[in-house]
Design a protein that fits this description.
The structure holds 2 protein chains of 2 kinds. By secondary structure, chain A is mainly alpha-helical. Chain A has helices at residues 17-25, 29-55, 76-87, 95-112, 122-139, 155-181, 186-201, 204-218, 227-252, 256-264, 269-284, 286-299, 311-319, 328-358; one strand at 309-310. Chain B is built from 9 helices and 10 strands. Chain B has helices at 44-50, 73-82, 98-110, 114-127, 143-155, 173-188, 200-206, 224-229, 234-244, and strands at 6-15, 18-28, 33-37, 59-64, 67-68, 83-86, 161-165, 192-196, 209-214, 217-222. The chains are: A mainly alpha, B alpha/beta.
């Protein structure tokens, strides 16, 4: 029997891990040398980190006298001061309220990430409830809870509150800006466009300072609200200016046929926007939106400079004392892990959402 | 005698310096099927898109089902609720399943309950023979199926007039017949139809009249058998000869 030229099989990739190694890492002498040197360095670095962070670390305050000598990380500082980092200057006896509030807002964010909740009825209810519970818990003044003014709020709960409020306030604002900028009335489109451009051309710091310091001079007392409220509104406007442009890009990516078909079916303007255009615009701009959320989460640390005691500032306060002044590396590593946990969660969520949305949509 | 479904008088349209529609006058009786044809750029799509206000016009008068189509938004939305339109590129909503594509417009335009809207949607999808795709997304079905879903979506609102803007131009040849078939069915049921198309066989078999347009003007209006066999104008003759070639 004649063996016709069989298509040559690709070299079996699983015939030996060694073969794969040789092909990719030990192809020539210089290649091998580099592999060894770099591999050695990576292993050494990993081992040192593990040593420092885990094996040689001092975990308990009771053993703190070992800190600083030849020991690794001194996590005793976290055990001693975690309450300051997470709750800031919030009164010690009331800190359970702050942790419950943290939980409430985290749950609100997580639940509003579930697509089943994306309806014009459910989302606003969820957000109002979440922020309401947070505020009642944090501020108190009802059900026998002592009042804790926003000046005393701090730590992680403040960071989460600022982020959630900015996002939830800024997103509807961004939609309004985006729609206004596309308005068929030239005056509205131009004014909105100009406003967005001005906000985007100012540094966030300037805008927050203006909200904290300048507004009280210009605006009557009854309209000012607390400093925290002013800062959150200003931050939300800043966020909205950027997010509006993302949404506008999403709207422009849709074919005009979508809007025309909906109009031809007699659907009213609000429905064309809410049912047809916005869902598609959000879907098309999901990566940029997640990106903007991540940036905003990290940028919340900027409120330190106008006297708020969010998680970053609280961490710095720990190392500002003589007692734990030497443990600045531990504090910064810990803060980095806290930020990482939230930001990594956000970006994994974004990736999941993108995969999910590709189903049934080419 | 009942008022005609569509009355167009002296319609003019300018796109900047371009004169897209020149003094168009046309009357379409209720139940009539009128096919509009002509070379590309002749203004036939522009004309049909004026009928439900997707295009504005510069001068003239346009009455559809007794409503003045113009700047009055209330009149415009009344017209849109009573006039259906099917596009060359289907324009299904890609983020909604086929069934929801048909249900949502009923809820929003006619304020039907979801239950009633769903019953109507299933009925129209069955009529267009695409009910087995109700649970799919638009990108999971073929072009011919998409166009029939688009037609079902429109019919759910019980339109009295249907506008077709080159409904088969984006379809592969083997799918054209399935769409033309359902359109023939509509024409037979006394629907008032205004259709821009190059399908001369369709025009011959269902049109009461054929409108031939060139350079933004109506050149000739005649029943299909006479316009195809004895076109009176050279432009019409040249166009149909080119179509046959």
């Amino acid at each position: 029997m004649v063996v016709l030229s069989q298509p040559e099989r690709p070299p079996a990739s699983n015939d030996s891990a060694l073969g794969w190694l040789r092909k990719n890492f030990f192809r020539s002498w210089s290649n091998a040398l580099f592999t060894l040197a770099f591999g050695g360095f990576v292993v050494w670095a990993l081992l040192s980190v593990v040593d420092w962070m885990l094996l040689d670390a001092v975990w308990r305050v009771a053993n703190r006298d070992r800190c600083g000598h030849d020991a690794g990380a001194c996590w005793a500082v976290i055990e001693d001061r975690w309450r300051l980092i997470f709750f800031g200057l919030y009164p010690y006896e009331e800190q359970w309220r702050s942790s419950l509030a943290c939980l409430a807002i985290t749950l609100t964010i997580v639940v509003s990430c579930v697509p089943a909740f994306w309806s014009a009825r459910r989302l606003p209810v969820l957000w109002l409830a979440g922020l309401g519970i947070f505020f009642v818990l944090m501020h108190g003044g009802v059900a026998g809870l002592p009042v804790v003014t926003t000046e005393q709020w701090g730590g992680l709960s403040l960071t989460l509150f600022i982020f959630a409020s900015v996002f939830l306030l800024g997103m509807p604002l961004a939609v309004l800006f985006a729609l206004a900028r596309r308005s068929s009335l030239p005056v509205i489109a131009m004014v909105t466009g100009g406003f967005i451009d001005i906000v985007r051309s100012l540094p966030l710091l300037t805008i927050l300072f203006a909200a904290a310091v300048v507004i009280p001079i210009l605006v009557p007392d009854w309209l000012q609200g607390s400093k925290l409220a002013r800062v959150i509104v200003a931050f939300a406007v800043f966020f909205a200016a950027y997010q509006a442009e993302i949404i506008r890009a999403g709207l422009q990516s849709l074919s005009t046929g979508q809007e025309e078909a909906a109009q031809a079916l007699g659907m009213p303007y609000w429905s064309v926007v809410v049912d047809i255009l916005l869902p598609q615009a959000f879907r098309n701009t999901l990566p940029s939106t997640i990106n903007q959320a991540v940036i905003t989460f990290k940028e919340t640390s900027i409120v330190t400079v106008i006297g708020f005691f969010e998680v970053m500032a609280s961490g710095k306060a720990v190392i500002g004392t003589d007692e734990w002044g030497a443990q600045f590396i531990e504090i910064y590593v810990f803060l980095a892990l806290v930020y990482f946990a939230f930001v990594f969660g956000l970006s994994r969520y974004g990736a999941w959402l993108e995969r999910r949305m590709r189903v049934g949509h080419g | 005698m009942a008022e005609p479904a569509i009355i167009v008088e002296g319609l003019q349209k300018h796109y900047g310096a371009h004169h897209a529609l020149r003094d168009i006058s046309l009357t379409v009786a209720a139940g009539e099927t009128v096919v509009v044809c002509g070379p590309s750029g002749s203004g036939k799509s522009t004309l049909i898109r004026c009928m439900n206000g997707l295009e504005t016009y510069s001068e003239g008068r346009l009455r559809v089902l007794g409503h003045d189509v113009g700047d009055d938004l209330a009149e415009l939305s009344a017209v849109r609720r009573r006039v259906g339109m099917v596009f060359q590129s289907f324009n299904l909503f890609p983020h909604l399943k086929v069934l929801e594509n048909c249900v949502l417009p009923q809820i929003r335009s006619l304020r039907r309950s979801r239950a009633d809207a769903t019953i109507e949607a299933v009925k129209q999808l069955e009529r267009m023979r695409v009910d087995i795709h109700a649970d799919k997304y638009p990108d999971q079905i073929s072009g011919g199926q998409k166009q029939r879903v688009a037609l079902a979506r429109s019919l759910c609102l019980h339109p009295e007039v249907m506008l077709f803007d080159e409904p088969t131009s984006a379809l592969d040849p083997e799918m054209i017949a399935e769409v033309l078939d359902v359109m023939r069915g509509l024409a037979a049921q006394d629907m008032t139809i205004l259709c821009v198309t190059h399908e001369m066989g369709f025009a011959r078999s269902v049109a009461d009249r054929v409108v031939f347009m060139a350079d933004g003007r109506i050149v000739e209006i005649a029943p299909p058998e006479s316009i195809f066999s004895h076109p009176r104008h050279k432009a019409t003759r040249d166009f149909f000869n080119a179509m046959r070639a």
